[in-house]
Specification:
With 511 residues, the chain is mainly alpha-helical. It contains 19 helices and 2 strands. 64% of the residues lie in helices and 1% in strands.
Length: 511
Amino acid sequence: MPGNGLWRTKSIEQSISDTDEPDTKLRKDLTAWDLTVFGVAVVIGAGIFTLTASTAGNIAGPSVSLSFVLAAIACALAALCYAEFASTVPVAGSAYTFSYATFGEFAAWIIGWDLVLEFAVGSAAVAKGWSAYLQTTLGLMGLDVKTEVGDGLKFDWGAVLLVAVITTLLVVGTKLSSRVSAVITAIKVAVVLLVIVLGIGYIKAENYSPFIPPAAEGGPAAHTGIEQSLFSLITGYSGSTYGVLGMLAAASIVFFAFIGFDVVATTAEETKNPQKAVPRGILGSLAIVTVLYVAVTLVITGMVPYKELATQPDGTRATLASAFAQNGVDWAATVISVGALAGLTTVVMVLMLGQSRVLFAMSRDGLLPRKLAKTGSHGTPTRITIIVGALVAVAAGFFPAGKLEEMVNVGTLFAFILVSGGVLVLRKTRPDLSRGFRVPLVPLVPILAILACLWLMLNLTALTWIRFIIWMALGVVVYFVYSRRNSVLGKTGDNKVEPEPVVKQGEEPGV
């Protein structure tokens, strides 16, 4: 293909050889255990502490546990595709790098721009959530301290403090970040286990009946116009609270609770044995959190009638602490708040790690300024990490969090679709590649992954789709104004002498 084409692809061999450039070389410190910790660290966060109870009360009732299972299945299908790609292309950048090798430069830029939406917006939103929990925790300790100050332009010093500390940790080294994550993750997993064990004693069997409540028109989850789901807008079906459709709609919302396991793939270049460690990290972390999520939902919906978990007229949303408070276990609220504080800390850390690695890969390819890809003495992309930290700090410090869950969801699902489709393309175009992990039942599994993600996207609101389209249109403008003209691949053309195909000795090429 011509060097200036929109669909020029960057070969797998070329991507791997770029990882050896001295000025942009990342240190290989991580093991399968580190990656599993990162995965659990980022996934167990805001979702399990906030979405579980409110989604049960507003949309699904006790069947919210099935909603988590459905969301987990969609994630698992996509995770298998991520695992194959990451073991085949152990390069920073995750879905961006994978798309560059299969769909071409323009698609890679689009997915990279999309990942900025997922990671940066997610980091800022969760940082503000952390700040709110910090204020709550300080209040429970008898300290009346506001983390957001100012009258007109408000400044959230709590969120900025968190982002500053995390940025420093990420600059110092990914291994240190992993160790910090391991300690904090152990704390929040212990809190989740406490919720399960303690809550079992308060379960009443009658609260599970009916497990899938009868559909009720209107209710807390009902919306009209562009606030309704795209599926409702297209089909004209007004939608229901509860019922089977309520359970399916809830799966699109609780999907937010699983976001982040794909961040594991962004650290492939910093992993000692990526062919084995990355698949284990991705699939292992997803399995752990799925078991915990389903257990928590069963306990919470068994503790109180689901209608008591619905959002109150004043906008107050139910949380895990709400179920314990209604059973007179007030001290659990303090423990859960501390667990949520710990949980959100590692979520912000791993999201910012993923954001910096995606931008690092894009900068190394010239789609962003090449100077940003230079690594520091600690073997981390110092400049990019500091820039990401500054941008997230500004967003979290001065802008209201708003309803960002769906914006993050639509961006992530779009990335999942491209990665799943990329597995099919690369199996066809490069059957000779060495694959440390292979998706079973191809093409069935990737196709099911694409269909599952499309279904979840259809259940997001039309307004979310409009905002997503505007963001992606802005990305197209940036690509044609800057990235296309400065692309390293575009400047060097497609006539590089490439190394021999990466095939292990004794391995037969083929699908």
